[in-house]
Amino acid sequence: MNPNPLPPELSSALSALTPVQLAWLSGYCWAQAGGAAAVPQTPSENAATAAAAPPPAAPAAITVLSASQTGNARAVAGRLYEALMARELPATLVSCADYKPKNIAGEQILLLVVSTQGEGEPPEEALSLFKLLNGKKAPDLGGLKFAVLGLGDSSYPKFCGAAADFDARFAALGGTRLLPRTDCDLEFAAEAEAWIGRIVPAAAEASKPAASAPAAAPAAHSDGLAAPQNAYGKENPFPATLSVRQKITGRNSDKDVRHIEIDLSGSGISYTAGDALGVWFDNDGTLVSRLLAAVSLGGDEEIESGGTRKTLRDALTHDLEISQNTPQFVKGYAALAGSAELAQRAETDTAALVAEYPPVALAERYPAALAAAQLVALLRPLAPRLYSIASAQDEVGEEVHLTVGVLRYESDGKPFTGAASGYLGERLAEDDQVRVFVEHNPNFRLPPNPAAPVIMIGSGTGIAPFRAFMQQRAADGADGKNWLVFGNPHFTEDFLYQTEWQQFAKDGLLSKYSFAWSRDQEEKIYVQHRLRENGAQIWQWMQEGAHIYVCGDAAKMAKDVEAALLAIIAKEGGMDAEAADEYLDEMRQEKRYQRDVY
């Protein structure tokens, strides 16, 4: 017996329907059939019934859309989807990476969970949708009901900026809010769960059809958002071993970049080229002592942190963020410090204080006498740092490699070192334990076709994932062309992994390379200049199906690189600026233009 009783032409037509159309059709057919047991009708009876009364309305379809940079928004969206399915609601779960922006015009109920990167910008996978909503072709969303949950970091001035922008655009284009926007800080789990508890009943109510009708069967669709699962994760990191730490910049370099190798033996952890490694770290003991002295505390005071009783020094070392400032710390500390100058600046210039002083420097500049509980209340929980993985597991086995630039700077004339970079690059010794987990990044992946050309553009430690890419291409025997465009200050001091890249070229794996040593001549040369110089060949590779990857600084480099690519597309492709932008956006949607920027 044929398991599919539908004629081929109808099966073909169904395959072309969107999830929203399928959800409507399922409810319509269910109602037409009279539920579980319908009495067959003759064609004349069908016609009479149709003339007598229109078919009952189906429940409004609910789309759960995630826009994630590191996977947190994706995880929250998955949890929301599960809660909706538990109510047997017609829900669909999809990532912005797999979402066609034009589908937004047909959505009925949209629940967006979105993170923020850089200076209030949306994640890479959401850029195409963001551009559509803010462009000339923005659709009328008068029929849309929506809600937005934002994930962000309050230490940045534009906290949850992407969520605010999406929420405002949905409303400006005619959409109706189901709930006011909710913004979550780094410790988002409890607040996100509370939001899910509010939005699920609101969405259920909004989904009800105008007239009473049998509910449509839930769409029960997921695009495979769940990341590969290991026993270890952010909340349960693996106690790995630091096996190698080697400086890979020259003695006269202004940068201190370390090659790190971490032993994962026995963990069962797997990763893919393009993923990131999350690293939990301890704060510098010297920095902890400086903070305690600035607020007149000894460190032996007993407090509660992470649900347990411990000394203040222990909590400051292992549990609390003391390197990155936030508006909450600035305003809270100003209220307690008793400094009129600080109180005035905190009132009028909070953002500048956050940018200028880490918490320790602010306390040293304006010392005070605090109670231990007051200090703890001002500080947020410590969060892990993410580093692009610089190795392919097919090449290194049960290891993972990182390329870490140790951050050093001064604030108010006093020295500081990056919290996590200093931990990995200086304070840990080889054979010490380090707690790690893999953060999967499905939006930074080598092309599935090994014959596809690859163009890798990066500066500084942005070279890390490209080392992983080349190792993976070699392990796969991929025959596609590979082009590296890399920039750093000096050839002799800052050519990261020089001998490896030379070997890749010698072996024929690296087909072309273009280097930008910005300080080796009077005129500064950056990667975007090398792109423009090679515009015709860049365009040729694009026409051959090249995948373009960008890794590094989001604020400057990535924007300049995108401007160069748009100029190349316009010039070599004979397009105006708008057409060039659409061309690059199509590449982004096809996952041929991917960025890992920070």
From TrEMBL:
FMN binds at residues 68-73, 115-118, 151-160. The keyword Methyltransferase does not apply. Its EC number is 1.8.1.2. One of its GO terms (cellular component) is cytosol. SUPFAM superfamilies: Ferredoxin reductase-like, C-terminal NADP-linked domain, Flavoproteins, Riboflavin synthase domain-like. InterPro entries: CysJ, CysJ-like_FAD-binding, FAD-bd_FR_type, Flavdoxin-like, Flavodoxin/NO_synth, Flavoprot_Pyr_Nucl_cyt_Rdtase, Flavoprotein-like_sf, FNR_nucleotide-bd. Residues 62-200 form the Flavodoxin-like domain. It is an enzyme of class 1 (oxidoreductase). Residues 235-447 form the FAD-binding FR-type domain. This is Sulfite reductase [NADPH] flavoprotein alpha-component. It comes from Kingella potus.
